[in-house]
């Protein structure tokens, strides 16, 4: 397969103008992608958050560029992560919705990934934290007591230390380089998403065992660490995680990888879990906010950012490291546990005043924080209104490294490096967003178009979130206050614009 050449960074960055072809190793910056889970546009202090302090993220914004019009590709986790890592919209491929903990690998070994791109450019690569894209070759048939036949090493990652899915789903163990970390031969692991194992307690039948958190809806099956989960699990023993230690475990492996690879270019996908349910931060972060466990989890996330930034400083590699911080989708407050997240908001808006949230068609579902820091290359203290999407990160970072992306790989990813580095304040002509019911939206610098779709106006099974589902087309003018808040549907008065944006969706859907 003949590769196509992405425009090298030398043509974009004055600092690399002398480079010929791909930048030399010493000129290639490290890239750390800090990818939060369920962190809303308004959940950080530098984005206007109330009742919680995030000094490390504030520092990152002060030393880099903060984006106000950045978007995940979907309002839920699995499709967002799939699109980010493959440069292909998840809605093109079946089986990319929110994954069970025993899902087979959703990104296939033959697919080209962001890790493959960095590896081809001479980078060491690592994935740490939440994965939620499946493991093994067959759904529901993994042997968690042996090396998995398909894991992240098959997707371009040299090192991985991950949660198979999320903290609210079994198996509640870390997977290190394709096998359960600290596997306990005295407690072999069994997992099922169909039926419980004889004699195993559940949150539904044994609420007296839930000494850490109880569910508000769902999440009432296997019990691990005094918290009931989705799915059934038996065994684990010494390999089982303690929720209060999850962030420390992930951060420890991340800092070790940075230390071990400080002398050569590396790429790290650092996917934190903190803000996703069940929220159960370490005791040292308790009380750091006035919003209970959810606010304290945001403070714990900030502590991870602080650890990374301080380590880069101590190793003397901060100036040659790009740090990107974002989230996989918008926020949700009550997503299944009785942690008083709704009751303790006290004026805090996780979406920053945007309508909707996780799962939704509205902006609160997919507009996310994005901060990019690269000392001396990205302007410090800058705010950018450029329209940017995570779908374009793969091609943009290929520009940066001079990597060659094979023909047909990352088909939806567009090179937008100047926007990502804060040099171009216009960004993409449009981005596409996916709600949990697969309804698509088109966002341009001025307009937000939501295609007609069926569904309830609010999520019916728990979270108090507007879905944005409507049988009629919706159009919101971002140049008006009512439009920015998606309160006035301008579609009836602008049929030509509705037709133009609907045609963009039709054209995109027609692509293979």
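^ Assign residues to that structure.
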């Amino acid at each position: 397969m003949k590769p196509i050449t992405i425009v090298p960074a030398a043509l974009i960055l004055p600092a690399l103008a002398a480079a010929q072809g791909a930048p030399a190793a010493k000129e290639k910056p490290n890239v750390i992608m800090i990818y939060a889970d369920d962190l809303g546009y308004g959940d950080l202090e530098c984005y206007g958050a109330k009742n919680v302090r995030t000094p490390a993220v504030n520092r990152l914004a002060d030393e880099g560029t903060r984006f106000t019009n950045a978007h995940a590709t979907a309002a839920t986790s699995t499709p967002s992560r799939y699109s980010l890592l493959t440069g292909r919209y998840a809605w093109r491929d079946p089986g990319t919705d929110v994954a069970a903990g025993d899902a087979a690998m959703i990104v296939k070994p033959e697919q080209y990934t962001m890790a493959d791109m960095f590896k081809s450019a001479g980078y060491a690569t690592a994935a740490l934290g939440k994965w939620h894209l499946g493991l093994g070759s067959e759904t529901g048939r993994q042997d968690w007591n042996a090396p998995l036949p398909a894991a992240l090493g098959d997707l371009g990652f040299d090192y991985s230390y991950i949660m198979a899915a999320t903290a609210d789903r079994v198996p509640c163990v870390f997977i290190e380089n394709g096998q359960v970390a600290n596997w306990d031969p005295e407690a072999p692991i069994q997992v099922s998403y169909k039926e419980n194992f004889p004699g195993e307690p559940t949150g539904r039948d044994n609420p007296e065992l839930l000494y850490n958190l109880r569910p508000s809806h769902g999440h009432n099956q296997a019990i691990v660490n005094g918290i009931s989960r989705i799915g059934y699990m038996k065994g684990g023993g010494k390999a089982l995680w303690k929720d209060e230690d999850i962030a420390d475990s992930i951060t420890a492996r991340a800092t070790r990888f940075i230390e071990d690879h400080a002398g050569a270019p590396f790429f790290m996908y650092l996917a934190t879990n903190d803000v996703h349910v069940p929220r159960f931060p370490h005791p040292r972060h308790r009380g750091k906010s006035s919003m209970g466990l959810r606010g304290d989890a945001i403070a714990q996330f900030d502590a991870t950012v602080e650890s990374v930034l301080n380590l880069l400083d101590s190793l003397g590699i901060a100036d040659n490291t790009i740090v990107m911080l974002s989230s996989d989708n918008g926020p949700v407050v009550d997503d299944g546990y009785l942690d008083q997240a709704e009751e303790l908001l006290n004026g805090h808006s996780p979406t920053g005043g945007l309508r909707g949230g996780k799962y939704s068609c509205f902006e609160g579902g997919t507009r996310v924080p994005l901060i990019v820091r690269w000392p001396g290359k990205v302007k410090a203290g800058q705010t950018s209104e450029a329209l940017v999407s995570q779908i374009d990160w793969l091609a943009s970072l290929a520009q940066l490294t001079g990597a060659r992306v094979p023909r047909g790989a990352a088909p939806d990813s567009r090179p937008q490096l100047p926007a990502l580095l804060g040099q171009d304040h216009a960004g993409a002509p449009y981005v596409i967003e996916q709600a949990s019911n697969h309804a698509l939206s088109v966002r341009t610098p001025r307009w937000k178009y939501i295609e007609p779709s069926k569904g309830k106006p609010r999520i019916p099974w728990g979270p108090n979130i507007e879905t944005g589902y409507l049988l009629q087309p919706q159009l919101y003018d971002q140049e008006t206050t009512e439009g920015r808040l998606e309160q006035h549907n301008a579609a009836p008065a602008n049929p030509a614009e509705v037709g133009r944006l609907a045609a963009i969706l039709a054209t995109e859907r027609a692509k293979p």
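The CA atoms of residues 92 and 512 lie 8 Å apart.
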